[in-house]
Amino acid sequence: MASYEKALNEFDTFNPVRNLWRNVLIVAISDAIKIKNNIIKFKEFYEKRRFHEIDYVTLPNSDFAKICEYAELDHNLVRKKVINTLNNMEKNYDKDNMPSMPWKRLYQSKGINRESSGNYTTVSKL
Description:
mainly alpha
């Protein structure tokens, strides 16, 4: 029986309250990411607007710190990672190496333009 108690104390146990607050953080961060994605896509429309969802997870505030405390996470580390993610989204938005026209991509692909190897067994030989 002693080894069972040691295993419970040694490893992380199920904590529904902590999991609840971690899910609250997940929803807040995903809302900020969705809004940042829309801001990047439609820059002219959103350029002079401010969003509370992004401010909530990027600017220091006591509510965010308290929720991170309930979730047993460091609020400064979470905020830093969210800010890095949002900045990386903005940096990597237009780094698409593919041509802008989809039919041009198909035309230039090696799979479509490859030469026949002559090893196909078709009915045309009959």
